[in-house]
């Protein structure tokens, strides 16, 4: 494991977010670019709706800064759907060279890391990355179709309906938010097999990545304005704090989780909080980048967290391995 | 789209292959490191068998050159299974930092490209990449379980049971095979929707990548000892030749397809040839690298081809987009 310092400061020159109804009704609603109350985005299946979100997130991200698709040299993207079809069918007509990625809910920082690494090395002028999830596609694929009205357990999380997109450019003279460091996570499997408690399955991976980051970098939690995990939710958030504490690393008030920020626990009945590839994607692309813009924060860690299971692996009695990829975002 | 020249010559320092019964009975049998006639690899489900292949390919690849897992800085990997579980459960105990990728059957050159790019940039000393597929997991997931004994159409291909792994290192002083150039493909969708004819769905993507490669690089087909597509099979092989001919690019006797090489059409009843992430992975890691070693070839293009569909996208009436990623392999 190694912290990779990107010395050429790959800048985030644009970001865009598309969300569904509950995200639009949540505390971060003002930070998102586009929403559809029906969660359908004009499509006749939930899967096509997810693709439509990706299409719009990419389109908005490019248009916002007056670019065209052909100005983007390489696109990374992935989602939770089988064979990542939410991304494929969303981005295919853009005609941008494409590398598909899969990191479950850690996809956002995985794509952000690879984009930053490519731009930092001077391989390409501009790279983009998308990540998405949709509550209804996830419920159907991993649990039961929403139309069945299945009961949810208190530890279960709510998959965010959302897509986030970023564009990075290598321009040392630019000011703004850049990817300062990245760190690829390891697959960590402590034997959790409760598919209704993803927070517990992913927290050990976040612990492994964060602990090693502080160890290798020499930085400490208080050096950052925000340390945010991707989608540990209420369960995983507390587990991670407890695990870090055992290593004498205290995560203070600057530690949060995107899954806690996106919904209002009192007003919205989302059980243990948000999850999904879209969770850390839209919270970072919408909310955190805005905090940077307003100079409210200057330096943060975002650690998207993924649960690497499938319904087949669960039915075959396997555990739920987790993974967590870290990105340090800094403002010039 | 852009041809990326890797000037620091990221060398392939090790490769390993694990295959199933039919691959072991095919014309390339002597080039593979490990096989299991039962295709089960000691496991009680086909999915676990696929993971076991990945585990062994990675283990052999590392052991062959006297390394340990902790000598590998970053691992890329992916497969065809939902949520890439064939890879996750195969590599998780290695404790190597891991970035998951998804490119359907183009996964091998996708992982090889990213590994080479990381090593070339000096980000990591050694990167590895795995890709796998298993006939029985693919049949069950995309078509019907093999135990049902379904009939196959003449244009259908046989998913290769196999896993290939490579390790790359940045060492300019080394001799051997290195990744000279990489080119990320675009998603190409000409509206093919016959799930029993993947060759036709993927050939347009191979055409797009190859045509643009020759255009941008200034190279011509006769400059290479071998030009090999991943798994177009008999159908796609001919379609690609025809499409290239319309652009006045003649693919001659040096053009082949991994899906044609891996089985004997007369002796083995594999219909239109091999396919799957494992196809280009084991043919390249086994056969092509051996040709390099024996100095029979010095310069080749490998273009793994992927069909970006899922059974859900097909059931919802969507087409089959294709993608093809190119890697130029050269010997010092």
- What would you call the structural class of chain A? alpha/beta
How many whole angstroms does the radius of gyration of chain A measure?
18 Å
Which chain pair shows the most residues in contact?
Answer: A-B, 57 and 57 residues
Known CATH architecture of the largest domain in chain A: 3-Layer(aba) Sandwich
| Quaternary structure state of the chains depicted | homodimer
CATH class annotation of the largest domain in chain A? Alpha Beta
Mean pLDDT across all amino acids of chain A:
96
Please state the overall shape of chain A, judged from the principal axes of the Cα atoms: globular
Query: Which runs of chain A of at least 5 residues are low in confidence (pLDDT < 50)?
Result: none
How many distinct helices of chain A?
Answer: 10
Enter the CATH topology name of the largest domain in chain A.
Answer: Peroxisomal Thiolase, Chain A, domain 1
Q: State the helicity of chain A in percent bands.
A: 25-40%
CATH superfamily of the largest domain in chain A: Stage V sporulation protein AD
Tally the structural domains of chain A: 2
Query: How many β-strand stretches of chain A?
Result: 14
SSE order of chain A: EEHEHEHEHEHEEEHEHEHEHEHE
Distance N to C terminus of chain A: 27 Å
Major beta sheet, strand line-up of chain A: 1-9-14-13-10-11
